[in-house]
Amino acid sequence: MKTTVLHKANTRGHADHGWLNAYHSFSFASWYNPDRIQFGMLRVLNDDTVAGGMGFGTHPHDNMEIITIPLEGDLAHKDSMGNESIIKTGDVQVMSAGTGIQHSEFNPNASQRTKLFQIWIFPKIRNVEPRYQQITLDTTEQKNNFAQILSPNPDDAGVWIHQDAWFHLADFNAGFEKTYELKKEGNGLYVFVISGNITVDGQKLETRDGLGITDFKTLDFKAITDAKFLLMEIPMK
């Protein structure tokens, strides 16, 4: 039987550091909620706004799949693997931290803020060789569609990670309806609304709401207004 957990936008953790305005869907840094540790293998969903010219200094990660999706502006990335790049709106980036990496992320534009999602997924294999991947999406594929941006398969559309997870971005016109079919039995789906209002099997979601769903095979999505949203299908254990 289908089960759901609703995370309204205003129940998220919030930290305003001046240069960084961050909202946490799951426990992170100084915000701890014992009921909001993770959803299956989804450990972190941070909704960050970085002020012009500011950013995260060099810091370490290991044994985590880290996905960055810019929503507005750019992010300059530099890491211990020798990668230096600018991640732009419309791109998606993934790092498999594996045995360990260090990286920094800065907003390279002094006069423009950067908005982004940073997502952490537990990998199914520990201590892999660290890797980096960045692609530019064809955002037209998202119009009234579930456009795949991540999978476990290097030959598939989007980036890939060391986990049986599939991410899709959708940009629906008001009134549009579409059914999502689960990719792998036992997985759950976490839906996060970027903008607008939708329903998922009748459950209304508004901007920045999150909904975790388990024990289903299909889900019916309908846009109440024009709406953009992210679907993250991940293993539950």
From TrEMBL:
Record's cofactor remark: Binds 1 Fe cation per subunit.
Amino-acid positions noted as binding Fe cation in the UniProt annotation, renumbered to this chain: H59, H61, H103, E105
* Keywords for the protein's UniProt record, in alphabetical order: Iron, Metal-binding
Asked if the record carries the keyword Metal-binding, the reply is: yes
Domain (Quercetin 2,3-dioxygenase C-terminal cupin) ranges: 149-234
**Cofactor(s) required, per the database record:** Fe cation
Q: Which InterPro entries match?
A: Pirin, Pirin_N_dom, Quercetinase_C, RmlC-like_jellyroll, RmlC_Cupin_sf
Which residues does the UniProt record annotate as the domain Pirin N-terminal?
Answer: 10-121
Q: Supply one GO molecular-function term.
A: metal ion binding
Question: What family does the Swiss-Prot or TrEMBL record give for this protein?
Answer: Belongs to the pirin family.
Q: Kindly give the PANTHER family that the UniProt entry links to this protein.
A: QUERCETIN 2,3-DIOXYGENASE
Name of this protein? Pirin family protein
Its organism's taxonomic lineage begins at: Bacteria, Pseudomonadati, Bacteroidota, Flavobacteriia, Flavobacteriales
